[in-house]
Amino acid sequence: MTLHAKVVALLTEALIVYRDSPRATGWLRNQLARMEEPVRIAIAGSPRIGKSTVVNALIGEEFTPATGFTWYRDGVRARATAFTPSGPQEVPVVTRDGKAHVEIGMWDQVDRLIVDWPTRSLRDATIIDTPATATSDQVYREADAVLYLMRHLQDVDLKYLQAAHDNPISRSSPINTVVVLAKADEIGAGRIDALSSTKQIARRYRREARVRPLCQNVVAVAGLIAVAARTMRPEEFAALAALAALPRTELEDHLLSADRFVGGDFPVALDPSVRQALLERYGIFGVRLSATLVRQGFDTQVKLVTQLVQRSGLGELRDSISQYFTERREVLKARSALLALDVVLRAEPKPAARKIVMDLERIVASAHDVRELRLLAALQGGRTRLPGALEPEASRIVGGLGTAVQARLGLEEEVDETEQRYLVADLLAKWREQAANPVLDQDQRRAATVVVRSCEGMLAGLG
Residue 167: its pLDDT value, please? Predict the structure, then answer.
């Protein structure tokens, strides 16, 4: 029985035990329904860190930020539902000046806003924009996974992430967070190589002993550039191309600050309102980078958009979301459900629930999917160390680079199933030896046993 099936069965059993508690049954039914949804990914961080900008970059559409928790999910048509003190109210979604607006109108107290938007970007994930006032507990309760945005590593960021792992179940599998260094162009002081510099900072944070146990990856993203690139308009490209046509030496002084860029002595015949619009959409760094790229040969809108998206870090962020969240959907859903069930069992303990408590503990302790997550967290956090090349190989086999067989085997090219079986069989024999290797300590041999089970699972799946 899969982890998903075990958790569904446990929730169903809990519904019977708690059938006389409307609050508990409502909570449990919600968790059962949630198991079948796309993975929920919350965007969290301190005020003005750029959460809504990253949301827009991921969706590929500009939405005017709303108050409270705002959910964006795939839908057959654009619509929105505002959850108010008077109950849910359908509110219109309109487009003005290239941006989508949710017209809340008279409803000034909205606890949650759910926006249905037809786009491929939301087919595998529901994106949740969180208010700056939301606590770590609120965010992680709403979501299956979290993108946590910050500029630099500060104590307040560490406390936020640590608070998300206070629960014993959370500590056993802390694999639902990716840290994002937001506004990467600003972190790099606006230099033309700012994005490269910030990506180096992200790589350093990945090795930071305080960060590794709390997240799976650290990536750098220039959200403003990513949004502007994904929603670039023909008139914007024409304006950027006009800037690039001027020799760099003549334009350079006017790109040193926002005031100079919109000043009256500008050397290109662009109306100040056009320049102001570019500034708002791209930022001074984005304008400077775009002009440079057009000069370097990315001289069509398609070429420029592709290059800006790549340099913004959005591609790496998407890869992390796919690798750590959407490919792990069932495991993350099961994890969320177990956490929710644990809340019910603690809030309303009863003798009839003792078996459920034991079954929950057994699933957390023995489910191989959870063991993989736990080992991956231990390897990435440095709590478990393996000698030499064994460590990166173990991380890869248990799904550190993706859960597909090809990713677990580290194959860059497609090979047929027969060849895959041979490769898995060789790995299985190798890791069985490591699981019994007397040179390794008990923790290392335990880690090798998990890798063995992953190899056995791959072999069984290949037939």
Answer: 66
Nearest C-alpha neighbor of 369 from the set 403, 341, 420:
403
Look at residue 152 in the predicted model and tell me its pLDDT: 86
Whether 112 and 138 share a structural domain: no
Average model confidence (pLDDT) for the chain? 89
For 192-212, what is each residue's pLDDT tens digit? 677 888 888 888 888 788 887
Residue 373: CB atoms within 10 Å:
23
DSSP H or E stretch at residue 70: strand 69-74
Please report whether residue 395 resides in a domain: yes
- Domain count within the chain: 4
What pLDDT was estimated at residue 372?
86
Give residue 74's domain range.
70-118
Q: How high is the pLDDT of residue 25? A: 95
Answer yes or no: are the C-beta atoms of 301 and 232 closer than 8 Å: yes
Query: Both 237 and 154 in a single domain?
Result: no
Last residue of a domain, one of 288, 307, 326: 307
Residue 271 burial (10 A CB sphere; 0-12, 13-18, 19+): exposed
CA distance 210 to 161: 10
Residues 255 and 114 in one domain: no
408 with 458: CB under 8 angstroms? yes
